[in-house]
TrEMBL record:
One Pfam assignment: CxxCxxCC
Family: Belongs to the UPF0260 family.
InterPro entries: Puta_zinc/iron-chelating_dom (IPR005358), UCP006173 (IPR008228)
Name this polypeptide is given: UPF0260 protein SAMN04488523_101251
Length: 150
């Protein structure tokens, strides 16, 4: 992490972060890789435990992150200039959303704790708690709606 400025998340505006700093904000919770159901009328977003086909729920990471668009063309590339559009559906504990809201990161964030394991220990991640979208027909997604682990 030597190319990250000390405590950059407390001082550097999102739009002025370097690419490594921006990437380091992701805590690896995996929650944004769960499918959501959005009510067309109310705009309400419900989270399900039905995971994207590329999510490894042991590591909570995308198994083909660099070339994921070959498999999942609509996977969103989050950037400082599109955060305004996406923040509403992002997990409440997501570092991008927290900073966008002007809030601090939690102590379990790997940038603060120094270890990825703290995200799992705090029960924030989706580790071992998903079902695959391959095995779960869309009609059944409603049966898998969950509260976001926070
Ligand atoms: S919800 Fe945010 S912090 Fe968690 S994996 Fe997704 S982008 Fe990273
Ligand atoms: S393609 Fe990868 S990064 Fe995108 S939602 Fe699926 S698992 Fe997550």
């Amino acid at each position: 992490m030597s190319d990250l400025r000390p405590k950059f998340w407390e001082k550097v505006p999102l739009k002025e972060m370097t690419t490594p700093e921006w990437e380091a904000l992701c805590d690896g919770c995996g929650k944004c890789c769960l499918n959501k159901l959005e009510d067309e009328d109310s705009g309400e977003v419900a989270l399900t435990r039905v995971a994207c086909r590329l999510l490894d729920d042991a590591t909570c990471r995308c198994v083909h992150y660099e070339n994921r668009h070959q498999f999942v063309p609509d996977c969103i590339v989050l950037r400082p200039d599109n955060l305004d559009t996406h923040a509403y559906w992002m997990p409440q504990t997501c570092a991008y959303r927290l900073l966008w809201q002007g809030k601090p990161l939690y102590d379990w964030h790997p940038l603060i704790s120094g270890t990825q394991q703290s995200v799992h220990d705090a029960n924030i991640s989706v580790q071992f708690d998903t079902v695959s979208e391959f095995d779960t027909p869309f009609e059944e997604w409603e049966d898998h709606i969950i509260e976001e682990p926070t």
